[in-house]
Amino acid sequence: MMTSGYYTGHPCEECGERVTIHVYTGKVFAHGSPRQCPMSGKPVYDLASVAEGRPRRLSHFDRSREESAEKRAPRVRKPRAPFIDFPGWFPRWEDEALPSVALPAKGRIGVWLPEKSHRQHGDFVDLLLGGRVAHSWDPDRACWSVSKDHFIALTAGLLRRYGRISVGREFDSGEACNPSCRNARRYECTCSCRARNHGGGSWMRGWDVQGETTRRERGRDWSWMNVAPR
Q1: Who's near 32: CB < 8 A, 6+ residues apart?
Q2: Contact status, residue 47 vs residue 39, Cβ threshold 8 Å
């Protein structure tokens, strides 16, 4: 009789007591008791024969053959998630796609990391910033985005990890640089100095600028730097 994954009513081969056999594991239990049969220990039954109502105890040869077949069976690996493509509006440096951070005049920072899937991007940003942060995929810019508040910590963390990164800032070529820019304490700047004079350049402290370029993307001017730590 088969009930809820168990076969009941079969007499034990050793003591004759009727036992309950678990169909999937082959474990044998004394009838009406959770303990295993004290006479037979843990006999292994051929599960196919249990399902047919005629349990047959497996021989050592049968068990060895089944175990060998399990070992020979190829392991199925899950396909690896694809890496995120390099955003076309980010510059390459000598044809190399560096980890990139883009600081717009308004909105959230754009972030791209090489050889990282969507999930790995999020996990890596969490690791760099010391905890879970609100990051989201920006389909319009084809990159991940985080709050502007993380700009300094994010660039510093990427420099420590990769050694070279690409940093972009949006600027307005028609906005003249003024004393409020040169004396600023934070890093936000959109004037024509491209943040080079901003706060006396203190926001770039510890950076070695190895290359610079400007690009225009969707009517907006961007200044990009190839940066390494000093």
Answers
A1: none
A2: no
